[in-house]
Specification:
By secondary structure, the protein is mostly helical. It has one domain: MFS general substrate transporter like domains (Growth Hormone, Chain: A, Up-down Bundle). It is built from 19 helices and no strands. The chain starts with a helix and ends in an 11-residue tail after the last helix.
């Protein structure tokens, strides 16, 4: 057994102190919040912009949304592991900067795109550089003791939810002026975020804790997945994470189409809905994850989050009115317990100089989910809409997502277990 695979049988070492400005969780949290805000600005607008290029046809726009999602996912699958290993070799900070400035470039391309093909080119650029959250999670693993990782991973998830508090609402308001304006605002946020990282954000991975050399055979998507295969329970946890990512992709892909079709919500109201969703997510991820993990453990958090996700998706899919849809929001928000528990369990199974590779492998799986998701959800929604007169089930795609969460729960019953207590190793 190699040194790398052997290390998977024991907890990773706690972060080592380093001289100079100390990397702290607050630094990376601020970066994640700004990045999430830039994402949140354009989420409710992109489907409408696609729709404007196809003459306002909802089914056709949903089909194009599938093309956009598959393209973005393919870029994540190919490039994500490379960026993950680059962060293990050269540090987290430069990879974060590449990702943030690349995201800003993507928003500018989309802001001035004269056609669907230019819009698609922007998504390709985004998919190639969108490593900010996975690299940020590796940063968190670098600077956080083992016992606090699940809590801090929950706080990182809350940063994404904060982006849903103000971003979509502001995006909806700006879209009332111009559909392109939210993308310009998102690009500006990325510029501010990039400058913050350039001048303020310290490096978290000390040189002596980095990989000795960059290895292409481990950086390609297939090679990166070998890290997951090297330990049976790690692969099982990664499978749960894959199902979680796949199910989660249903709302980004069809939420705007689904709610405007079924409930006739306007863009400003959609922004308000995102804000409510984000507020509930922040409450769960920032306030409930820590106490929940202390009380029921990381495994319990994964199981509870999976059940809540399945129940929330089911309510969303079957709600005949917008009021009933809102009733499902607090239930669905508890899905926020799942990812921090998974990240905590998985990060314990690799060494410090493999955290980036682990996140890269996770990003590659997310890329696969982002390829499969648009092939399932928008196309299923388009099929259901075309047959709504006889099928009467526009929420069919969301029911499929609920089934994925049930499957994740069943797998977690078997594999989502903590490692035996062992002394930390270097």
């Amino acid at each position: 057994m190699t040194q790398g695979s052997a290390s998977l049988d024991r907890p990773a070492a706690a972060p080592a102190p380093r001289p100079g400005r100390a990397p702290a969780f607050g630094f990376i949290y601020a970066t994640a919040v700004m990045n999430a805000l830039s994402f949140g600005l354009m989420i409710p607008v992109l489907p409408s912009l696609i729709k404007s290029f196809v003459g306002g046809d909802t089914a056709s726009a949903a089909s194009w949304q599938a093309v956009f999602g598959v393209t973005w996912g393919a870029m994540q699958f190919i490039v994500g592991p490379v960026l993950g290993m680059l962060s293990d070799r050269f540090g987290r900070r430069p990879v974060l900067l590449i990702s943030i400035f690349g995201l800003g470039g993507d928003f500018l391309v989309m802001a001035f795109a004269p056609s669907l093909w230019w819009l698609l080119a922007g998504r390709v650029l985004n998919g190639m550089t969108a490593a900010s959250f996975s690299t940020a999670n590796a940063y968190v693993a670098d600077v956080t003791p083992l016992e606090n990782r699940a809590r801090n991973f929950g706080l990182m998830s809350s940063a994404f939810s904060i982006g849903f508090l103000g971003g979509p609402l502001l995006g909806g308001v700006l879209a009332a002026i111009s559909l392109r304006l939210p993308f310009i605002a998102a690009a500006a946020l990325c510029l501010v975020n990039g400058l913050y990282g350039l001048f303020v954000l310290p490096e978290s991975l000390a040189p002596e804790r980095r990989l000795a050399k960059f290895m292409w055979r481990r950086a390609n998507p297939v090679g990166s997945l070998r890290l997951l295969l090297a330990h049976q329970s790690l692969m099982g946890l990664a499978t749960i994470n894959f199902l979680f990512q796949l199910a989660q992709s249903v709302l980004p892909n069809i939420f705007v189409f689904y709610t405007t079709y079924r409930y006739h919500w306007s863009l400003p109201f959609l922004g308000l809905t995102f804000m409510v969703t984000g507020a509930l997510g922040v409450v769960v991820q920032a306030a409930l994850v820590g106490p929940a993990v202390k009380r029921i453990g990381e495994r319990g958090a994964v199981l509870a989050g999976a059940l809540a996700g399945a129940a929330g998706f089911t309510i969303y899919a079957l709600a005949p009115t917008g009021s009933l849809y809102f009733i499902g929001m607090p239930v669905f928000a508890l899905i926020g317990l799942m990812q921090p528990g998974l990240q905590g369990l998985m990060s314990r199974r690799v060494r410090p100089n493999e955290q980036g590779q682990l996140q890269g492998a996770g990003q590659s799986l997310q890329g696969i989910a982002s390829i499969i998701g648009p092939l399932i959800f928008p196309l299923t929604f388009a099929w259901a809409v075309r047959r709504d007169a006889t099928l009467h089930m526009p929420g069919l795609a969301i029911l499929i997502a609920a089934a994925f969460m049930v499957l994740a729960f069943l797998i977690a019953l078997r594999v989502a277990r903590p490692l035996p207590v062992a002394a930390p190793t270097g």
